[in-house]
Design a protein that fits this description.
The complex is a heterodimer of chains A (391) and B (364).
Chain A lengths: L9 H17 L2 H10 L5 H9 L18 H14 L4 H5 L1 H10 L2 H13 L4 E4 L15 E5 L2 E9 L9 E7 L10 E7 L5 E7 L5 E13 L3 E2 L5 H13 L14 H18 L14 H19 L2 H23 L17 H12 L6 H13 L9
Parallel strand pairs in A: 1-4
Antiparallel strand pairs in A: 2-3, 3-7, 4-5, 5-8, 6-7
Helix pairs in contact in A: 1-4, 6-7, 6-8, 9-10, 9-11, 9-12, 10-11, 11-12, 11-13
Chain B lengths: L2 H8 L9 H17 L2 H7 L6 H7 L4 H4 L12 H13 L6 H16 L3 H11 L5 E2 L10 E4 L7 E6 L2 E6 L16 E4 L4 E5 L1 H39 L1 E2 L2 E2 L4 H30 L7 H23 L1 H5 L4 H14 L6 H10 L15
Parallel strand pairs in B: 1-3
Antiparallel strand pairs in B: 2-5, 3-4, 4-6, 7-8
Helix pairs in contact in B: 2-6, 6-9, 7-8, 7-9, 9-10, 9-11, 9-13, 10-11, 11-13, 11-14
Classes of the chains: A alpha+beta (391), B alpha+beta (364).
């Protein structure tokens, strides 16, 4: 058992300072403004700057476009990135498919795709979810049918976030509907400029713009196939395993499954506290002296620390739900002016609390809903029987 | 907070693993309680909640001496180790005055260091197995009588009266008062107690003892919650309804998953708080209160979900879940309303809220 501080040498401290300076310089108000307007989760200028440092894939070798950072430095980049809060959805979806290309692509495909990953010139989004299947991912219906050296793809994908700014999508298709559902799947790296692909935006209450992607007789050359025909499930899981194979990330540096929620919760609490410091109640007393206000802040702070210590798949559930509770109660604490969005007359803390209330419902859904994770916890840790049928 | 301070907090180790010695210690006490503290024994100890034979047996393992410094004839272990033992006692609802004994012994050692002569002899008798307890209640420091944990089996009580740290004694303990948890509670009035120490140091030492009591009580509650969960999860596998094990219904399974989450988080918070008290007490901030509050919530929920999972059976006196449910509420409530703990948490975290320092360190 050890929770001691990790000692940093002078060189690492300078690296930290330089990292912070980088994000201060590049995550400008202009970047935030563009994200508010577009909800893309991507800023080209910032993304290229990140690529210039090799920080899209910070732990990859320098030859592969990374920065060959050790665990501590990679964590420092992550900490400063979290602190600056730039739009990063696309820089987060890109590395995993790139690993799949590295593992399963032929030489030609690798030479087309890989050099642009680290620099930020090639972006990849995830084409998994469909209108009729989300948490039950192996239920995908998008069909790929072989025709000579090509595959003909028909179907539709939903929540393909970043498709409008990406060059490829990692597409999960059904190639044999007669096999058991996990066995008849094949993965392709599909260039998004092929004829027959139509991208249509979907707005979300959290402000993020995601997409429908329609595939209508899209002809994809076989060389874009990753892994064996009907072996798609392996292709999806292999990059995750390979990433872990880069050496075991020490616990304190591993990105927990609740990391995003923890960061948002800490920021929200800090924001509301900063605002409360100047506030008085109707009788002119400082609001921070009010026991009810203090109790509610302490409740959120306590749940935040529970979120920080929550292990494994429990963190995925706890952190997302604790963030939801925090966003609700802290908005209540702010009162009516908390309802005002960015730019409104009398807005509180730039509308951050209002924004977070809209943001939080998504956190218990994406990446597998909290119910799916509860099933996992009940089966794996409590030995309870499966509650859902498996095909 | 300066950049340097922030950096020192955010990049911390996050290692919850136990050393071989810690595992051996935990296993030894787990074995002891499994062998000597059945639920039948717990039932037989009711309503007083004390088993003198069990107390006599455990003295051989020196659990009370464990956390006392070596130069006071203790074994020099830290709160992390005491928390491991307290959790094992909690798992079996051991009807012995263990936690108060552990904390009082450590307090007596500190008092001896502050030149309180009476503490030396008392500590020696406590290390030999005599029962001492602490008036940890919400009434601490206020005039009038208060409910004291183990007050019905101890002849010696340490507590606050005003700004005096006092030692109250009685040739025979006051009568036991029946209570929800079947704990050995009794009313004590500390007004006539002998002063051990007074002033700010006395208050500080007693506050530290109260923190240690909260921490070890949190650990015991984690044990209570774990047992309630284990029993419920087993029942959910064994009991069939509509042709299938009831654990295959999400309406049964998901609340149990939530209980597990609560218990796991409370255990980790408790360990983390114990580690900070042992190694970086200046950074512990509100972790003890958070662990205590979270463990009390988790244990009560485990008991209530445990009863509900067992359905009608859970509500009968036959079920151990009801034993756990009552203790989950009663053990912490003797120190007062747990929501009042949130005010103490606020005192300690508001100055640094929203930064990693709020927890005395956080890695994420």
């Amino acid at each position: 058992m050890n929770f001691g501080a990790i000692e940093l040498d002078d060189e690492t401290r300078s690296f930290w300072a330089a990292t912070r300076a980088f994000f201060d310089e590049h995550v400008t108000e202009e970047v935030h403004a563009e994200e508010r307007d577009t909800g893309t989760g991507y800023n080209e200028k910032f993304h290229r700057a990140l690529g210039g440092r090799g920080w899209i894939v910070p732990r990859w070798s320098i030859e592969e476009g990374g920065a060959a950072l050790d665990f501590v430095r990679a964590r420092i980049v992550e900490i400063e990135l979290d602190r600056a809060g730039p739009p990063v959805i696309v820089s987060q979806t890109t590395p995993l498919p790139a690993l799949a290309v590295r593992m399963f692509g032929d030489e030609q495909l690798k030479s087309e795709v890989m050099p642009g990953i680290g620099t930020g010139e090639v972006n990849i989004c995830l084409g998994y979810t469909e209108p009729d299947c989300g948490s039950d991912l192996a239920g995908v219906k998008t069909r790929a049918v072989r025709d000579g050296d090509e595959w003909v793809i028909n179907g539709q994908k939903m929540f393909t976030t970043g498709a409008q700014v990406c060059h490829y999508t990692l597409l999960l298709t059904r190639t044999d509907p007669d096999l058991p559902k996990h066995k008849g799947l094949t993965v392709f790296l599909v260039p998004l400029d092929l004829p027959g692909i139509e991208i249509r935006p979907i707005g979300t209450v959290g402000g993020e713009k995601t997409n429908f992607v329609h595939y209508d007789d899209v002809r994809v050359p076989d060389r874009f196939r990753l892994g064996g025909v009907n072996d798609g499930w392996t292709v999806l899981s292999a990059p995750l395993a390979a990433e872990h194979g880069m050496g075991k990330v020490p616990d304190e540096l591993a990105p927990g499954s609740g990391r995003v929620s923890i960061r948002q919760m800490r920021r929200l609490l800090g924001t509301v506290l900063r605002w409360l410091e100047g506030q008085v109640d109707d009788a002119g007393r400082p609001r921070l002296d009010d026991p009810i206000t203090r109790e509610r802040l302490a409740q959120v702070a306590t749940e935040l620390e529970n979120a920080v210590v929550a292990p494994g798949p429990m963190a995925r559930i706890y952190c997302a739900e604790a963030l939801g509770r925090a966003a609700s109660d802290l908005l209540e604490l702010v009162g009516p002016a908390g309802l005002l969005p960015h730019g409104a007359d009398g807005v509180v803390e730039d509308g951050w609390v209002e924004y977070m209330f809209r943001f939080v419902p998504g956190t218990t859904i994406y990446g597998g809903s909290t119910e799916v994770h509860r099933n996992l916890v009940a089966e794996k840790y409590l030995g309870l029987p499966r509650s859902t049928p498996r095909g | 907070m300066s950049t340097e301070e922030y950096e020192a907090f955010i990049l911390r180790r996050n290692d919850y693993s136990l050393s071989e010695e810690q595992e051996a210690l935990r296993d030894a006490f787990r074995l002891f309680f499994e062998k000597h503290c059945s639920s039948e024994l717990v039932r037989e100890s009711e309503p007083v909640g004390f088993d003198a034979a069990l107390w006599a047996q455990i003295v051989d393992l020196r659990p009370v001496a464990m956390g006392v410094p070596l130069d006071h004839d203790g074994d020099g272990a830290g709160l992390v180790e005491l928390a491991l033992v307290a959790e094992e006692a909690g798992r079996r609802m051991a009807p012995i005055p263990l936690i108060e004994g552990m904390v009082a012994a450590r307090l007596l050692a500190k008092l001896a260091d502050h030149g309180v002569a009476a503490a030396v002899g008392l500590l020696a008798s406590v290390l030999e197995g005599s029962i001492i307890t602490l008036a940890v209640g919400g009434g601490a420091g206020r005039p009038g009588r208060q409910l004291v944990p183990n007050g019905a089996i101890a002849r010696t009580v340490i507590g606050l009266h005003g700004d005096r740290l006092v030692l109250a004694t009685s040739d025979t303990p006051p009568p036991h008062v029946e209570n929800l948890a079947c704990a050995p509670l009794a009313w004590w009035d500390l007004a006539d107690g002998d002063t051990l120490l007074s002033g700010p140091t006395a208050l500080e030492l007693f506050a530290a003892a109260q923190d240690e009591w909260r921490l070890l009580t949190a650990a015991a509650l984690v044990g209570v919650g774990q047992t309630a969960l284990d029993l419920a999860a087993q029942y959910a596998q064994d009991r069939f309804a509509f042709g299938v094990p009831i654990g295959s219904f999400q309406a049964m399974a998901h609340p149990l998953a939530d209980v597990l989450m609560g218990v796991e988080c409370a255990r980790r918070l408790t360990w983390k708080a114990a580690w900070f008290l042992d190694f970086e007490p200046e950074h512990v901030r509100a972790l003890v209160g958070m662990a205590y509050y979270s463990a009390a919530e988790a244990a009560e929920r485990a008991g209530s979900v445990g009863i509900h999972t067992q359905g009608g059976f859970g509500f009968t006196l036959e079920s151990d879940e009801q034993l756990l449910y009552r203790r989950a509420k009663g053990w912490p409530l003797v120190a007062g309303d747990r929501r009042a703990e949130l005010q103490r948490i606020a005192d300690r975290v508001l100055p640094v809220l929203g930064t990693p320092a709020a927890s005395g360190g956080a890695s994420q």
